[in-house]
Amino acid sequence: MAKTWTDDTALVKSLAENLCEASVLLPRQLMHMDDLSRSFHMPFSHIQILIMLANGDKSIGMISYMLGIAKPNITPLLDALMDRNLVQRIRSTEDRRIVYVHLTDDGRKMLDDIYAAVMEEVNKWDEFYGRPEAKHVNAAMESMVNLVYRRAEANGKE
After folding, report:
1. Which of 17, 50, 119, 139 has its CA 20 to 30 A from that of 109?
2. Helix, strand, or coil here: 95?
3. Distances in whole angstroms, Cα of residue 106 to Cα of each of 75, 93, 112, 130
4. Which long-range contacts (CB under 8 A, 24 or more apart) does 147-150 make?
5. Rounded Cα gap, residues 121 and 116, in angstroms
6. If you ran DSSP here, which 8-state letter would residue 98 be given?
7. Contact in structure between 82 and 88 (CB atoms under 8 Å)
8. Residues in Cβ contact with 47 at an 8 Å cutoff, skipping those fewer than 6 apart
């Protein structure tokens, strides 16, 4: 049987440690999510939902899975976003039990503003970080996002 990278204990340990550290440092030290929440007058969970919808509609089940919040607890989050005309619910035509969340034009505008604010923050990194490092981190982040969506798909969430 071929050896896989998961057999490399040192690599797995390093990945786990870096992932744990990143979960603490990224939101507060690099992204400044508290500031972002204040700027847009919404909890970070609302911003997360808008970001999730950037590449298309998501089922309530997928949003629940990605945020790690029970489906019934997603309802008030969506209601608040609907009150601001940022999202709308759309029932599946194939299976009426499935409800998708769709970004409205106002939601798309808000998301563009969020991305612009995050870009401003990222632009501040250049005094500490070179272009080659930024390209490397960008590729790694893209790989991580793809991993999460592949896992969600494998678990029947999308």
Report:
1. 139
2. coil
3. 20, 24, 10, 35
4. 148/66
5. 9
6. -
7. yes
8. 33, 36, 37, 40, 114
The tens digit of pLDDT for each residue in 81-126 reads 999 999 999 999 999 889 999 999 999 999 999 999 999 988 888 8
- Cα separations (Å) of 137 from 19, 140, 144? 13, 5, 10
| Tokens (6 digits) for 121 | 């923050």
Task: Work out the average pLDDT over 23-33.
Answer: 82
**CB atoms inside a 10 Å sphere around CB 84:** 14
* Cβ neighbours for 58, distance < 8 A, ≥ 6 positions apart: 52, 66, 100, 101, 158
Q: What angle do CA 149, 124, 128 make, to 5 degrees?
A: 95
3-state secondary structure of 58: strand
Pairing assessment for the beta strands 87-91 and 99-103 based on DSSP bridges: antiparallel
DSSP state of 31: S
Residue with tokens 């505008």: 109
* Residue 90, H or E segment: strand 87-91
